[in-house]
Write a structure and sequence with these properties.
Largest sheet: none
Number of helices: 10
Helix content: over 70%
Radius of gyration: 22 Å
Number of strands: 0
Strand content: under 5%
């Protein structure tokens, strides 16, 4: 027990500070990915809900690709594919330079692509749950399409999509562990390094499991409060 506490302590003899930095990277990556995934997912849902066939087709192809590919493969495609693309572009311009894509940025882009493909379905279901009369009511009040969307539709859309988006956030939080394979010093990678050096895999991977569970519990509590806040108008009625 004392040896385990020493290994998990902060300072030269322990790995506590390293694990804490890994947690910071994991949470930062998830938080940085979330807004991009939400905005992209909303735009894809708009395209799917559009009357323009080409937009619908492009959005359906997008979601089919990124919902069908394994997340790890998407990460590899972004991390290595972007590097190759940049280098080939530079060669065409006459430059022979090696470019390495930042692991954090690559992980954020890959996770945002996957997250947005699922978030678009949540938004699309929410769109279908809003009666057509809401749009007609906005038009009757003299509101523009933009005003109708932002003032009438969007608040209802967020409320209807929130439960599904909350589940997607929890999934995103766990999927950040995939970035360890491209060298980003997240919680899983730091725990793995500590396990190999100290030859205590059960201890450090067990601690990593507990940390993920704590993050999930905190997230679930926060999401429950947000959902309750979003329904405050219903409770008043």
């Amino acid at each position: 027990m004392e040896e385990a506490l020493t290994l998990l302590s902060f300072g030269e003899q322990g790995w506590g500070d390293t694990i804490a930095l890994g947690v910071l990277v994991t949470v930062s990556l998830a938080i940085a990915t979330l807004p991009f995934g939400l905005v992209l997912g909303f735009l894809i849902a708009l395209a799917k809900n559009s009357s323009e066939p080409s937009l619908k087709l492009a959005a359906n192809i997008y979601t089919t690709i990124f919902r069908g590919l394994p997340e790890l493969l998407t990460l590899f495609l972004v991390y290595f594919g972007v590097q190759i693309g940049i280098q080939q572009g530079l060669k065409l311009l006459g430059f022979d330079t090696y470019i390495e894509v930042n692991s954090f940025v690559a992980g954020m882009v890959a996770l945002a692509l996957v997250f947005s493909s699922y978030a678009s379905e949540a938004f699309l279901s929410a769109f279908r749950g809003i009666p057509q009369g809401q749009y007609e009511g906005g038009h009757a009040l003299g509101l523009s399409r933009y005003q109708t969307m932002t003032l009438i539709i969007l608040p209802q859309l967020i409320r209807l999509a929130l439960p599904a988006l909350g589940n997607l956030w929890l999934i995103l939080l766990k999927e950040t562990s995939l970035v360890s394979v491209i060298g980003l010093a997240d919680l899983v990678r730091e725990a793995g390094i500590a396990a190999r050096v100290t030859k205590e895999p059960f201890l450090f991977f067990g601690v990593a499991c507990l940390i993920y569970l704590v993050l999930a519990m905190i997230s679930s509590t926060g999401l429950a409060r947000i959902e309750k806040w979003s329904k405050r108008g219903e409770a008043a009625r």
